[in-house]
Specification:
The structure is a single chain. The protein is α/β, with parallel strands linked by helices. The protein has one domain: Vaccinia Virus protein VP39 (Rossmann fold). β4, α3 and β5 form a beta-alpha-beta unit. α5 runs parallel beside α6. The two termini are 29 Å apart.
Length: 244
């Protein structure tokens, strides 16, 4: 990690959804296996959450759950959210439940099976009335979404149980991140979950990190990572567009 961790201000509220630091958290099962590594005093903040316990880490929340927790702290009924990688529709349904009947969700995917699965899942959850599924790449976001949006979720990689060679690509992912930031209202939040265990995954994760590094003066960045000796471990970033 870069920079000093002495005399730091408290981390923003966004971090508390995953790693609480108040007295009550000492009684939580997570307290024995999580440790706060530190964060920087710059125009953004970085939170590293590391594994610090036995080999069995089943009590750690999945990074998909962490992303949902972060989004839930910011998204409220009546707002507009984007699922940039609809996949099987899990994030789409979550976002639709968060924004409520008066809100809107726009979900993107380039694969027909993903769009169909997302529509089915939304129908089962009875949220189809507030969801638009777009059969197009997330890099076309500006063509289908009107500002402002209040949250966006990216779950990179391939569609589970389908062709693993059809993956998200660094160039279109970065273009979609730029579009989401331009459409995002001040204080809005993006989450990006990058999987590095497939061909092309590590390169895409590095492109996301490079994109973040180039914007450290304008965005508030949080990063969660489960410490592992495995370089293929997934990475999760929370990216908050500061309020004007």
């Amino acid at each position: 990690m870069h920079g000093s961790t002495t005399s730091q201000p408290r981390a923003p509220a966004l971090t508390n959804a995953f790693c609480r630091t108040d007295a009550s958290s000492k009684r939580s099962p997570l307290n024995s296996i999580l440790r706060l590594e530190g964060y920087l005093t710059l125009p953004f903040h970085v939170l590293f959450v590391g594994y610090d316990g036995p080999d069995d880490c089943m009590s750690l929340p999945a990074l998909t759950t962490v992303a949902h927790q972060w989004i839930a702290t910011h998204l409220t009924p009546g707002q507009h959210a984007v699922d940039a990688t609809a996949g099987n529709g899990h994030d789409t349904v979550f976002l639709a439940q968060q924004v409520g009947a008066q809100g809107r969700v726009t979900a993107f995917d380039v694969q027909v099976p993903a769009c169909a699965a997302t529509r089915r899942r939304c129908a089962q959850a009875e949220v189809s009335d507030r969801v638009t599924v777009v059969h197009a790449g997330h890099e076309t976001m500006r063509d289908h979404v009107e500002a402002p949006i209040h949250a966006a979720m990216f779950n990179l990689g391939y569609l589970p149980r389908h062709d693993h060679t059809r993956i998200t690509r660094p160039d279109t992912t970065v273009a979609a991140l730029n579009a989401a930031c331009e459409l995002m209202t001040g204080g809005g939040l993006l989450t990006v979950l990058a999987y590095r265990g497939h061909e092309g995954g590590p390169e895409e994760a590095q492109h996301v990190q490079d994109w973040i590094d180039a914007r450290i003066d304008t965005l508030r960045i949080l990063q969660s990572r489960l410490y592992s000796a495995n370089p293929d471990a997934p990475l999760l970033w929370g990216i908050q567009v500061p309020a004007a």
